Amino acid sequence: MAVSELDPNQSLDAYWMPFSHNRYFKQDAAHRSNRMLAKAEGSYYWTTEGNRLYDALSGLWCCGLGHRHPRLVEAVKRQLDVLDYATAFQMGTPAVFHLAERIAEQAPAGFEHVFFCNSGSEAVDTALKMALAYHRARGEAHRTRFIGREKGYHGVGFGGISVGGMVANRKMFAAGMLQGVDHLPHTHNLKEMAFSRGEPQWGLHLVEELERLVALHDASTIAAVIVEPMQGSAGVIVPPAGYLKRLREICSKHGILLIFDEVITAFGRMGKPFAAQHYGVSPDLITFAKGVNNGLVPMGGVLATRNMYDTFMAGPAHLVEFFHGYTYSGHALAVAAAHATLDVLADEQIYPRVESLAGVLEECVHSLKGEANIVDIRNCQLAAAVELAPLDGKPGLRALRVFEEALKRGVLFRFTGDIIAMGPTFISSPDELAQMTDVLRQSIHAAG
Ligand SMILES: Cc1ncc(COP(=O)(O)O)c(C=O)c1O
What we know:
Blueprint: H1 22-27, E1 37-41, E2 44-47, E3 52-55, H2 58-61, H3 70-80, H4 94-106, E4 111-117, H5 120-137, E5 145-149, H6 158-163, H7 167-171, E6 181-184, H8 190-193, H9 209-217, E7 222-227, H10 243-253, E8 257-261, H11 275-279, E9 285-288, E10 300-305, H12 306-312, H13 332-347, H14 350-366, E11 374-380, E12 383-388, H15 397-408, E13 411-412, E14 414-416, E15 419-422, H16 430-447
Helix pairs in contact: 3-13, 4-13, 14-16, 15-16
This protein binds pyridoxal-5'-phosphate.
């Protein structure tokens, strides 16, 4: 029996599924109908029942080039024949040095250095550590506070949940939170901005809350502000027009580092290598993961400016400068996949393709306005979300029903709370985006 098939007698008990309703999934075969994936190609998965699913979230925002892109598969296979794992501490490979150079070349001006890790969560922890250590090296060790934002998602490390602003991800772990973290208000306000196309025109004033936090804590205690340029995991919350520019100004005024968490937005989703370029705002540190190698092998990283890097390069040259790194930093397979990803992004002109698909997605999703139970529709380049009115006393249930109805109709959406999120593959056709939208419409009707 192939490993992609499910033995009907197999127990599902041992596997503890991440960020999942384990009991619901395991208790009833009907609940997992079309939810066991067997294979994938391009923009589609196939389930163990043999049904095809359009992947409306590019994996988990990571497979923009589609699944099993032949050039990526080939690159990893070739790498396996030459070098599997290469120790990363005090050693290197030509390929990892070259990859850092290629990523820095695509980054906003001034970003000249790349530190590799294996996930978005690790990238966030790395960036927070860099910020603290940078201030310390410059004689400002008193800058220890971080400012995140409500509804922000920065992964699941203790650093990430501390600066993150998703209640469910925080409350279980309150005892382990970083000290001295504060949060900007989120910018999600249905009354003021529902059904905005692209950047909402309301909400710029909320960024001034940073001045209030500076007045409360004093700038000299604040190391960095971290935000996602577009808040993906909270359900595609798009920054109000001018918000990120103003955030940059306030941070600069007070000597506070600005970190853009670009784990979702980097390498394609925004029609540019980085959201920083889309918004014309340059932070001091950029985290990335997911799209850097199309989700093929876990990889994340942090882009740092020359100034940041140079600040660490003090003391005797034979000593370690930054006591941080992971066994799998710059894993040879991940690096091979990333080189191939950068090649495909360029050769297949993916960035202009995303720019043009973004308009199609906007038209598609906003055509749902007026359907029953939809309270908001949002879009940002090749990302979009439809927010549903919760069922009385049962938040999240309506979106679950829509998700299940869509699976029956051949589309895999992501739902979070009562929000349906979409991040289609960059290789999708306009027709596929239209079909995805039709399935969402039918599924909302069917779910009631
Ligand atoms: C903005 C952002 N930061 C960090 C993460 C965490 O990434 P990972 O799941 O790879 O740890 C995510 C994941 O979706 C994310 O969207």
